[in-house]
Specification:
Oligomer: single chain
Distance between the termini: 42 Å
Strand content: 5-15%
Largest sheet: 6 strands, parallel
Shape: globular
Number of strands: 14
Helix content: 25-40%
Structural class: alpha/beta
Length: 498
């Protein structure tokens, strides 16, 4: 059993308990193990911490040797946002692909299989699913992470995902409350604002969260967004009207409230992480997520000391901090007793879903590729949630099916001309991601299609732009399995294997 180090007082233990820090490396550093002995109850994992399932299982075992009830959290949405398969791309399509299929049982099965793999590696809290309704086509950070722009669709799939994930014994953390879909700013970089009325928010943003709560989600993650209709002064993460009055009171939620990463600029550049963490707990948050960018012992010490000092100064009620720590421990108890399983393993379910999510335009006149093409990837800057280390596209899968396939990455106003020059006489497969959000990408496709009307276009983001090209394939996400499903269509592979 866990033994808390002597000399750690209750207030300090509670302050450590509400933190969910990250670290660097693929094994636990000494400082982290020491903090677990002092009262730290949660650890957040990112792509930098994962090399293989075997290594991850060894890492989580190392953490539990120090504290057997530790919450091990991860940001594993599947699709574009993957940590388990950060270096190769996900075996599961993301939310937008599942929404395009609109089969809630399929969504439940995908989430169950993903949860099974997480549980097998010792992970028991997943910062997923995204319940955001992607109502703003210009949204730079949600996009394919959302099940879609239809509120009812997002709600039913959010509930199915929560059910599937938790059937495997992994706690779901539904995000980003009260909804990040109607933003045109990425909260990693600045503070977004949603100027919708309370009635619109209730009917649109909150609907999927009500479904998640009804499905029993064990955690909810707050968003760093300012919504004047709910609180004109503070972003949701720091807002008592949002976290306590709305989420706890009006929606009746009783589980753990986790903040989004406190080092994100929406908080760090406006309040600072110490002040922001104090305000978040005072507002009703139970766990402070930090570690995507700041991942060291000094950060843990600073936040612990800020919380303790706030209690001693009368700025943060001691009972509020104790309540927050109690909810963390309550979730830890649930994960320790939750019985996983969720049905028979379905290692192929991700590819099944990716194939079903494909939408093709112009397929009637299309003749499958028989010679190695040139894949021109028009590559936008990746948002921080996705990261730029995860490969995407169709080139790798086309190379497997058509050896000799070549590829290049292009961006900017001259991308189309550069791609034409690189392709030479080979058939071109142009791969885009959210064409509708990037004027340079539109120009690049214009250039390609004028010169080479036989160009094939594969859209791996939100398919908002009108389909064009000799064949247009919308994958509804850029996961590795989405690329495989598209490549199978291009070469007319049967698509029956896993």
């Amino acid at each position: 059993m866990t033994t808390i180090a002597s000399g750690t007082d209750t207030l300090t233990r509670d302050a450590l308990t509400v933190l969910q820090p990250g670290f660097t490396g693929t094994s636990a550093p000494d400082w982290l193990l020491r903090r677990l002995g002092e009262g730290l109850a949660s650890v957040g994992l990112f792509g930098r911490n994962i090399a293989s399932p075997e290594q991850l299982a060894a890492l989580t075992a190392q953490l539990r040797a120090e504290r057997d009830d530790v919450l091990v959290a991860i940001d594993e949405e599947g699709g574009d946002v993957t940590r388990l398969e950060v270096r190769c791309g996900s075996s599961f399509p993301g939310n937008h692909a599942l929404g395009a299929v609109d089969d809630v049982e399929l969504t439940r099965q995908v989430a169950s299989e993903l949860g099974r793999r997480l549980a097998a590696c010792g992970v028991n809290l997943n910062w997923a699913p995204s319940a955001d309704v992607n109502s703003n086509p210009s949204n730079p950070v949600i996009g394919v992470r959302s099940f879609g722009a239809d509120t009812a669709l997002a709600a039913r799939h959010t509930a199915a995902y929560v059910t599937g994930l938790q059937s495997a014994g992994v706690a779901a953390c539904t995000k980003h409350f009260p909804g990040h879909g109607d933003t045109a700013v990425d909260s990693h970089h600045a503070l977004p604002r949603i100027d919708a009325s309370r009635d619109v928010l209730s009917d649109r943003e909150l609907f999927p969260f009500r479904a998640a709560i009804a499905a029993g989600t064990r955690a909810v993650m707050s968003a760093h967004i300012l919504i004047p209709a709910l609180d004109p002064d503070r972003p949701a993460t720091l807002s008592r009207p949002v976290l306590t009055d709305l989420l706890r009171g009006e929606l009746g939620y009783t589980g753990l409230i986790v903040t989004d990463g406190m080092e994100m600029q929406a908080i760090a550049a406006t309040y600072g992480i110490e002040r922001g963490s104090v305000l978040a707990v005072a507002a009703g948050a139970d766990a402070i997520c930090v570690g995507g960018g700041l991942a060291d012992d000094e950060t843990v010490r600073r936040l612990r000391d800020a919380l303790v000092a706030a209690v001693r100064a009368g700025e943060l009620p001691e009972e509020r901090l104790a309540e927050a720590a109690g909810r963390v421990r309550e979730l830890a108890r649930w994960t320790a007793t939750a019985v996983g399983g969720g049905g028979e393993p379905r290692p192929d379910i991700g590819l099944v879903a990716a194939r079903r999510a494909l939408r093709t335009t112009g397929a009637g006149d299309f003749r499958p590729l028989t010679e190695a093409p040139y894949v021109a990837a028009f590559t936008p800057v990746a948002n921080i949630a996705v990261g730029d280390e995860t490969p995407w596209g169709v080139a790798a899968e086309l190379t497997r099916l058509l050896p000799g396939t070549e590829t290049g990455s292009f961006a900017g106003e001259d991308a189309g001309r550069q791609a034409l020059a690189a392709a030479g006489k080979r058939r071109i497969v142009a791969v885009v991601r959210d064409e509708h959000r990037h004027s340079w990408m539109v120009t690049a496709l214009d250039t390609l299609l004028r010169a080479r009307p036989d160009t094939i276009v594969v859209e791996m983001g939100v398919p908002q732009a009108p389909p064009r090209g000799a064949l247009h394939i919308a994958t509804h996400g850029a996961a590795r399995v989405c690329g495989r499903a598209a490549a199978e269509v291009l070469v007319a592979e049967s698509g029956t294997g896993a």
